[in-house]
Input
Amino acid sequence: MAGDDRFGDLGPGKDRAERPAGRDPEPEAESGPSAADRFAELDERDLEQEGRKQRSEQPRPSGRYAWVVGVAFFLVIVVGMARLIANDPSPPGLEDGDVVPAFAAPLATGSLDGDTNIKQSADQSDQAGGRPACEVRGDDVLNICERRRKPLALAFMFTRAANCEPQLDRIDKVRGEFPNVNFAGVIIKEEKDSAAKIVRDNGWGFPVAFDRDGQLSTLYDVRGCPTTVFAYAGGRVRKTANGNLSEAELRAELRALEKGPPRPPSTATPPEKSSR
Output
């Protein structure tokens, strides 16, 4: 009597299913897979499915990890841009001898609220302004074309991540000593209300405009705070000072403005001495 088949729940093998009833089993011949082979195949299939399940359940990078990678990538870009700027041979600001570009900006403490007009000429695009900036006049307007007729000290400042107000305080302190010099300031990328508060809180007595969209920072190539432009009468730039200046340094620059530009060397040929 044959022993019990412990793999019987997997179904009969091919040789058992095709054997006629009542006949003794013939010697084993080559046939389909036995129950044991099918069980082994199922075991292998289960192991393969389990492996796929484990791989699919492996933890993915957390949101925090992705955030750190993103920040690191951003820092790489910032450092690269900083190196490009550091390697830029051209100094920031207007160059000596440039003419102060025209603009008309609303005064921080005035009644106007709008963008700065930087239209240099009538044939320039109306995106810079509806009419040339030099033609825009009014009690609530800082028109630099008017103020550059005399020696000019023009200070730019902004409030984000900077401490530029002390420079304008020093300008306000020394300006009374130089009645022949015009003074003006511009607060870059500042809304009217906050710009007006800055001017009133500091009590500056010279006109200060606000440049809401920062157009002047591009026009004047302002890259640091504070930036002060010193120009001779007529608007020819004598010097652009980047960074803070002491009161003594301010006075020296303003005295140089009052003296006017240096005279060019004479090219006339001296008269020849008469020979006897």
